[in-house]
Amino acid sequence: MAKTHVLAVDQGTTGSTALVLDADAKVVGRGYAEFPQHFPKPGWVEHDPADLWHVSAQVAQAAVKDAGIAASELAAVGITNQRETVVMWDRRTGEPVANAIVWQDRRTARVCDDMRSRGLERFVRDRTGLIIDAYFSGTKVAWLLDHVDGLRARAERGEICFGTVDSWLLYNMTDGHVHATDVTNASRTMLFNISTLEWDDELLAELRVPREVLPDVHPSLHAWGDTIAKDFLDAEVPIGGILGDQQAALFAQACFEPGQTKNTYGTGSFVLSHTGEVRLEDQDAMVTTIAASIEGEPTQYALEGSIFVTGSAVQWLRDELGIINEASETEALANSVPDTGDVWFVPALAGLGAPQWDPFARGALIGLTRGTSKAHVARAVLESIAYMTRDVIETMQRQAGIRIAELRADGGASANGFLMQFQSDILGIPVDVPEQIESTSLGSGFLAGLGNGVWSDRSDLERIRKTAHRYEPRLDQDEREAKYRRWHRAVERSLRWADES
Questions:
Q1: Where is mean pLDDT largest: 276-280, 326-330, 395-399?
Q2: Are 95 and 168 in contact, with CB atoms under 8 Å apart?
Q3: At 190, is the pLDDT very low, low, confident or very high (cuts 50, 70, 90)?
Q4: What pLDDT, in 10s, does the model give residues 357-367?
Q5: Domain check: are 238 and 342 in the same one?
Q6: Got the DSSP string for 356-387?
Q7: What is the mean pLDDT of residues 349-376?
Q8: Which stretch of DSSP H or E encloses residue 429?
Q9: 328-345, pLDDT tens digit by residue?
Q10: Which H or E run includes 496?
Q11: Measured between alpha carbons, how far is 324 from 391 in angstroms, rounded to an integer?
């Protein structure tokens, strides 16, 4: 009998999710767990790699149990992951050599400034599609090689593996037999040439990263090996798909044609617009990245704008300020006041990503008065997510010469009706939210199932995606633009705040 269930493992920034999907792509089993965040210095963000593996294995087992099936009944496993986070480990023992440096970490901002001052911006852009920023993996790898005792010498001897989190999970799932990554994750490292689809020797030399540490690179849909690690699943299941979380969401949202655009509202928010086989050149605020690619087919590309802090700003309200107990409370709070009372929040808690790209920006809460309530603050935080998204989409349309007629939304915050309506209002276009909003997880499952006979082609996946809510803009054009101008005044006050030079 044909196997019709797929396990999707989504290793995110604050937690890991696993879903079991049936042949209709219905979620029949689920597991989720958070893991600790480490902030050793201001602007530094780390994870313990052991936590990433153990929690991912835990939620995978929980999802299979919840589905009421045996692991041996799974047709395939798909992996998606927080992308630019850097893990390095001992090739022989599998033991991490240091904590993972998370994509949000800003410790290498000065290194990036130095690279720009030496005129490397165009060189990096031409090879990688990226801008020079501490967000991407390359300078993080270099930092570990320079700051962990003896690590560079060991790396040059071939004793050390580097990988983004997908590589780390794959290595563990295959019990150390496979050290590899896919093109979408490789394209986020600032070390990979997205035209030749190879690690770039000149970039490696610039950052002094030895080739010996690098994983092999394959298309996203590829036969990666089997899950032979007994602490993961008690069966050998083919690993059929690997891709970065935002490319996974683009795939799950059935954005297969140029111009189709999605935003994932998670810890950060990531706007991706599919550009097909065309790699768009001459961008200075957006990045060009590789979209989900299938073995034997032409490479697919996308334009991306990365917003570093959105959902994590809501967590900040909960965990650091104590304004809310649960993220879901923000919707009722926002609706309890007619506006923000001219309170503005700029979510630069980890610097600003696209389109400002300012690692020294810091969060700002502006316009407070004696009458400001926690409802005004909560509403300002939600509205800031929508404003940041408009910043990206405006820039994307202007620089790429494309028109985005609809935004497909997913991620946890897409369940917030206030935010989605305000997003439509401030963009002036419809926002379409699917029935299943866990698109990062779904995308890896869809890809793995596509490669292992559960679904036959992309048209199957287009039929699977169903709209749950469609938000149409209701805000008057003049009011929309007045609010947007006011937002930019707030952003200006947060820029370069932490730059002591």
A1: 326-330
A2: no
A3: very high
A4: 898 899 999 99
A5: no
A6: T-BTT---EEE---TT--HHHHHHHHHHHHHH
A7: 93
A8: none
A9: 999 999 999 999 999 999
A10: none
A11: 27
Last-in-domain residue among 245, 270, 290: 245
* Cβ pair 383, 365 in contact under 8 A: no
Give 182's strand partners: 218
Give the position of tokens 């001052």: 117
Asked if 438 contacts 17 with a C-beta cutoff of 8 angstroms, the reply is yes
Residues 226 and 339 in one domain: no
Please compute the mean of the pLDDT values over residues 255-259 and round it to a whole number.
89
357 plus 209 within the same structural domain: no
Q: Is the residue at 438 inside a domain?
A: no
CA distance 265 to 210: 36
According to DSSP, the residues that pair with 58 across neighbouring strands are none
The two tokens of residue 212 are 């010996």
Residue type, 187: S
Residue at a domain's end among 222, 245, 268: 245
Give the C-alpha separation, 242 to 189, whole Å: 16
pLDDT at 464: 86
pTM: 0.88
Amino acid making up residue 495:
L
* CA–CA distance, 168 with 496 (Å, rounded to integer): 34
Which contacts qualify for 43-47: CB closer than 8 Å, 24 or more apart? 43/105, 43/106, 43/107, 43/109, 43/350, 43/351, 43/498, 44/105, 44/106, 44/107, 45/101, 45/102, 45/104, 45/105, 45/350, 46/99, 46/100, 46/101, 46/102, 46/105, 47/85, 47/99, 47/100, 47/102
* Cα dihedral across residues 166, 168, 170, 173: positive or negative: negative
Helix (H, G, I), strand (E, B) or coil at 291: coil
